[in-house]
Design a protein that fits this description.
mainly alpha, two-stranded antiparallel ribbon, two-stranded antiparallel sheet, 19 helices, 6 strands
Length: 488
């Protein structure tokens, strides 16, 4: 919901106003229990003064809160699709009817419970329980509650199928027990007909621990018995069993994360020893491309990396992407990583890791660098081609090879351009997705860049990437047709 930029709109959008409303909602839910326990009057007009004052306070506040949301809305048409606004409006209408409208009608016409107005007031008193539905608003303040409710909703179909199977089983056995105990005392007492047999199996067979309380409710009628049965099934089979499942899932995840972390730290220590003793010849603490390949080819290091689940063959094929880079002037250079960054690169290659926006951005930068080198080589080749065409050089094998090289470079350039556009589309899609999921607060992307002092990789924050340059052409020159007759 979007609110106006005035005092009412800012109040409606203020987080403190939302917290105060949630506190009043919680207090109202507690007050309903107090009112039911201590206020025995049939209507609010016959209640003691403290009950009247508190009811008027809640009714006044909820009216004020809904009015603020209505007046502060920037577009009133949005309220037509705001389910929370209509939900709160319905509950407020019930509260106003009982607290103010019926209150003054009862005062004017008589407050006896035998009068029609008194009966209506008593019915509205029962509807006071509907206010507890407003507690659902607390779910918005505690997202974990909403997660549990959605999980129960997702499992509802499976639960209903399981209950259907249970009902079919009880129905079959109820018929069998009614038939086999027809002339016995047990049949007369517990299985005199199929509905009673189903209830007996539910009470004493499925819920034996709750049988005493169910026996106590049997003489009160079917409605209280049905309510207590619904509570027992919801609390025992749904919520408590879900809690057991959550605890098992959390324990499994914690043990897996802790075990993976311990294994990773142990293997990192092994790789550190191998690097310092056998690989790092100049003892500078940085990993070059050759040293990286040396680590991958080392038997002990190879086994340690494979223990992490990393494919060493695929890791070695990523050497160009990890170490090759292009500086700000378009010149290629070999990046060097400190050993801790190298270990992070190895761990990031585990097959269970998800692809992130940083991974796509790094791949895009690698393709950008390759594009720069292809552009440079293609520009040199075309320059040589133009010189040969203008000089009218006769066809020769060297010219044919140069022409083939230009065609290959142009095809490679085109393929790289297609890959770059696809990556830009993927980066934008992932960026939009992350922006929506983070509420518009997208963190900056971490990208490796060149440290001009040490020629090693460092990290800085950026949101852009190197723009694709057009194919280099000398000033005043026109593109020659390398397939023309004169070019041949």
């Amino acid at each position: 919901m979007e609110y106006k930029d005035d005092c009412i709109g800012r109040l409606a959008a203020a987080q403190c106003f939302e917290f105060v409303t949630l506190a009043v909602v919680l207090a109202n839910a507690i007050w309903v229990a107090i009112d039911i326990d201590y206020n025995k009057a049939p209507s609010l007009a016959q209640s003691q003064s403290q009950f009247i004052i508190v009811e008027n306070f809640f009714c006044t506040y909820f009216t004020f809160e809904l009015a603020v949301r209505f007046l502060g809305a920037k577009r009133k048409s949005d309220l037509r699709t705001d389910a929370w606004f209509w939900f709160d409006g319905f509950l407020l209408a019930l509260m106003i009817t009982e607290t103010w409208i019926v209150f003054f009608i009862v005062l004017g016409m008589g407050s006896s419970g035998e009068t029609p107005i008194g009966k209506i007031s008593s019915m509205l008193r029962m509807l006071r329980l509907a206010r507890l539905a407003r507690v659902v608003r607390l779910f918005r303040a505690v997202p974990e509650l909403m997660t549990l409710i959605k999980a129960m909703g997702s499992a509802l179909r499976t639960v209903l199928i399981a209950l259907l199977l249970l009902m079919v089983t009880m129905y079959v056995f109820a018929i069998a027990l009614v038939t086999t105990t027809e002339d016995s005392d047990v049949g007369t007492e517990l299985f005199k007909d199929v509905p009673n047999a189903i209830y007996t199996l539910t009470r004493d067979g499925i819920l034996p621990d709750n049988a005493p309380i169910l026996h106590a409710f049997e003489d009160e009628g079917w409605l209280p018995t049905l309510v207590i049965l619904l509570f027992i099934n919801t609390a025992t089979f749904a919520i408590l069993n879900m809690l057991v499942g959550i605890l098992c899932e959390v324990a499994f995840r914690v043990s897996k994360v802790y075990g993976d972390r311990m294994q990773t730290e142990f293997i990192k220590a092994q790789l550190t020893d191998i690097y310092t003793q056998n690989i790092d010849a100049n003892s500078d603490g940085f990993v070059s491309k050759d040293e990286f390949l040396g680590i991958v080819r080392n038997d002990v290091a190879n086994r340690a990396v494979q223990a992490l689940g990393v494919d060493t063959q695929a890791l070695s094929e990523q050497a160009d992407m990890i170490f090759d880079a292009v500086d700000d002037h378009g010149e290629p250079f070999e990046r060097r990583l400190n050993f801790s960054d190298f270990l992070d690169v190895v761990v990031s290659m585990q097959p269970g890791n998800d692809c992130t926006l940083y991974d796509i951005n790094a791949l895009q930068k690698f393709i950008d660098g390759r594009l720069g080198m292809v552009e440079s080589e293609l520009g040199v080749s075309k320059k040589n081609m133009r010189g040969s065409v203008r000089a009218g050089a006769a066809p020769n094998p060297q010219m044919e090879g140069l022409r083939s090289q230009v065609l290959i470079l142009e095809r490679l350039y085109g393929d790289l351009m297609v890959s770059q556009m696809q990556l830009e589309s993927d980066v934008q899609s992932m960026s939009d997705l992350l922006t929506v999921s983070s509420g518009g607060n997208l963190p900056p992307i971490m990208e490796p860049t060149l440290d001009p002092m040490t020629q090693t990789g460092s990290t800085h924050y950026s949101q852009g990437s190197r723009p694709t340059k057009p194919l280099p052409v000398a000033a005043g020159d026109e593109e020659p047709d390398i397939t023309s007759e004169h070019g041949d």
